[in-house]
Amino acid sequence: MLPGWRQWLFALKIAGAALLALGLALWLDLPRPYWAMATVYITMQPLSGATRSKALYRVIGTVAGVSMAVVLVPPLVDAPEMLTLALALWTAACLYLSLLDRSPRAYLFMLAGYTAALIGFPAVTAPDTIFETAVSRAEEITLGILCAALVAGLVLPESVGPVLAARVGAWLGETGRWTADVLSGAIEAPAVRARRLRLAAEAAEIDALATHLAYDASAQSRAVPLVQLLRGRMLMLLPVLSSLADRIAALRDLAGLDPAVKALLADVATWSEAGAPAAEADALLARIAAADESSLASTSPGFWIALVRASLLDRLRELVAIGRDCRALQDGIARGESAPRRALAYAGEFGGRAPRHRDHGMALRSALGVFLAILACVAAWIATAWPDGATAAMMGAVLCCLFATQDDPAPAILGFATWTAVAAVAIGVLLFGILPQVHDFATLVLVLAPPLILCGLLMTIPRTMPVGLALGVNGNALLAIQDRYASEFGAYVNSALALVVGIVLAAVVTRLVRSVGAEHGARRLVAASRADLARAARRRGRGDRAAFAHLMLDRLGLLVPRLAAAGPDSDLSRIDTLAALRVGMNLVSLRRARHGLPPGAVAALDAALDAVAEHYERPRGPACASLLAVIDAALLAIGAVDTAEGRREALLGLAGLRRALFPGAPPAGAPPLLAREAA
């Protein structure tokens, strides 16, 4: 909880940027300089590249929101119900788009939504000044954005590039330790297994951090293409390692590891612990290819053992190739290169835009929540003829948008209301006890600097970040610094009450309409993954293995923290999330392999794919014995084919599918008595 020098630096920078914005706004004679101060606390981030990207999108979003307010308010000012509906619909639509985007650009949509509310509702009482008000707000907000970006970029900037390189190095280091454990056959403890799943969430965090790299001033900013290539390979490492661990365990239980495989596993483990040097990777790949000599004929007595062994070697080959690429790309990113120095494996699989999970249902619920919250605040405003009712409507819109990504935003919104009330008391003391004694800007800076620095320090600590944000944004709004002291106690109390009431109304509406638990969110993610697995088995959608891995692992990154929040008693804790990912990878491989098979083998394979689709279209539960029989029939039918272009890939895909769905099943082709006993 104690801040270090980086936290102190950020706190001093954000306080300095806020005071710079205040001084410039007073010098330019802007009507509400405190908007510029509050904007600094919304915009500024510890990393300069993140501040620049947020600043850019905030400027664009502000212009869009201000423009919409100018378009809506004048023609609808005499019809308050229609104006309220129009502003509420605009805010809800923008929030919906923001939640579907899930990139830094999402901030543009969100800001465009609630900026229209911030400008539109206060202008209802003076619609003839809407254009001047809109221009002033745009100037004040843009000034705050520019001050935040300027200070972040010029005063001891902390670049995204080195932080990203360190995070990637730590991630690959943890993956290397997992690789050593897998290749040695070590049994994972539950805590270690949970840590492995956390890698997916950390990969998503690295992905989010990498989106700011293009706006960075570091040498690594040129390495954006390499980061995109590395991201795909990082995600592919997780299912490859999970599959490799499964094949090693299966082969050890069936017939034991032969000396050639043992030697290969040991050498790959040594290579991985040494940092995956590229010079040794080619020799390892040649040895793996030489060890994989089996014909995989289903008529041979050791068919299943040979198939598992071939699958193990195939995963080992992928591990070495991807590990070599990761090391080369990591070095290139550290050097700030824009293109790889050598050819990469699987070059055609990792290009293009990575798909992300989109939950249209929850986005619609969030949009409905902000829509109803605005209506509730405006209804209270009209019913009570409250002079500051516009403030409540503004805060209802802003708070519903800011916390819409959470499963249950209500506690966070109520916490924001609590700290806004604390800020109101503290600002009241400052505003009526100290500021009347201030008569010049230098003294004002001395008075404001300590609380502004404190807000910045609170924002640097994850547990207190919402507190710092509430104090920094709403505190500056309540302080309402202008070119001359004109505060009145009754008006101040009324404004503070409106802030708190608007936030509380937003929390109440959110609790009634939008709030769900972490377990509910986890179930939606699991259901979406099962639907995609069924779609892949039905041979619909893109047959792109890397794109499918991106989507499934994006969901896994969202699922891991929700599973932790759901608790060990939830039935979701028993889900093998990496096994489901392996199913998806094998389905894509099977779809690709079926085009090279003869008609009879294609029919057997399609029957297996249809059975898998039916399994994932049903409610979640264990796979049935009939599905195992269909997969085995496809294995035997394709194994009996002498030569075919997709024969090997189809056999390995079916073997992987069988191991993921039925890890405890007897070997394929086992005598019926043995199969019944195992069942």
TrEMBL record:
- The signal peptide here is none
Main location per the UniProt record:
membrane
Q: How does it sit in the membrane?
A: Multi-pass membrane protein
InterPro entries of this UniProt entry? PHBA_efflux_AaeB/fusaric-R
Which GO-annotated molecular functions does the record name?
Answer: transmembrane transporter activity
**Which GO terms of the cellular component aspect does the record hold?**
plasma membrane
Coiled-coil portions: none
Q: Which residues cross the membrane?
A: 6-28, 55-76, 82-99, 106-126, 141-157, 363-383, 412-435, 441-460, 491-513
Q: Which domain of life is it from?
A: Bacteria
What is this protein's name? Answer: Fusaric acid resistance protein
